[in-house]
Amino acid sequence: MKNLKAGFRRLKAEMQEISKEQQSIKEGQKQVREKLEDIEAECAQLRKDTDIMIRQSAANKLNLCLMFKILKAREEGDFLKATQLAQLLRTILSRQNEQRQGCT
Description:
Oligomer: single chain
Number of helices: 2
Radius of gyration: 34 Å
Largest sheet: none
Keywords: Coiled coil
Coiled coil: 1-56
C-alpha cells in the first residue's frame, strides 16, 4: 500500500510538472503568434510604402520625359508642340497634387 501511495504521489507530481510545461508551451506559442502578427503588419506596411514609391517613381519618370520633350521641341523651334506638352505637364502635375492632398 505504501508503494502504491508513493507511486500516486510521484505520478501526481509528474502530472503537475507536465501541466506546468504545457502552460509554458502555450505561453511561448502565444508570444510567437503575437510576434508573427507584428511582422505581418509590418510587411503589409512595407508593401504599401513600396507601392507608393513605385507609383511616385513612375510619375517622376513621366514628368521628366515630358520636360525633355518640351526642351527638345523648343530646341527644334516647334513652339506649338512645346506649348501642348507644357499644358499636358501642368495638367498631370495638377492631378498629382490633388491626389497627394486627397491622401493626407
